[in-house]
Amino acid sequence: MDTDKKLGKLSPFTCPECHGPLWEIEDGKLLRYRCHAGHALSAEAMLSAQSAEADSTMERLLRVHQQRAAMAHRIAARDRAEGRLESAGRMEQRARDYDGDAELIKKLILDCDDGSRHVQEPM
Fold first, then answer.
1. CB–CB of 98/65 below 8 Å?
2. Strand ranges, E, within the chain
3. Are 40 and 27 in contact (CB under 8 A)?
4. pTM for this entry
């Protein structure tokens, strides 16, 4: 615990490298963060790392929803081809729902984008 006190006060943030707890250190006019593993960041570097993580997470979320929609469309097509029309109808509705979710996520990404990213189109 003595080491923890030397690091500063525990912050509500996690390390972008190891995801461990971060301690906040006020060093004169400089605000810094450090974790047990020794990763150290300025407040500006921390904000940049959080932004990069948010971007990456949103892109993964979009990709997963696009893939879910594509899979549901495939299952619906197979069900329809095999004469399982009721099942195909339910799966087509799920596919439309997933497509809608993906569009909402894509819109959110584009609304928050600074113009430097290309949003992946559905499969």
1. yes
2. 9-14, 21-27, 30-35, 40-42
3. no
4. 0.71
Q: In the chain, where are the structural domains located? A: 2-45, 52-112
Write the CB contacts of 30 (distance below 8 Å, at least 6 apart in sequence).
42
First-residue to last-residue Cα distance in the chain: 51
Reported as a single tens digit per residue, the pLDDT across 8-45 is: 899 999 999 999 999 999 888 899 999 999 999 999 99
Asked whether 106 and 118 are in contact (CB, 8 A), the reply is no
Count CA within 13 A, CB hemisphere, residue 50. Answer: 10
Q: What CA–CA distance (Å, rounded) separates 37 from 116?
A: 32
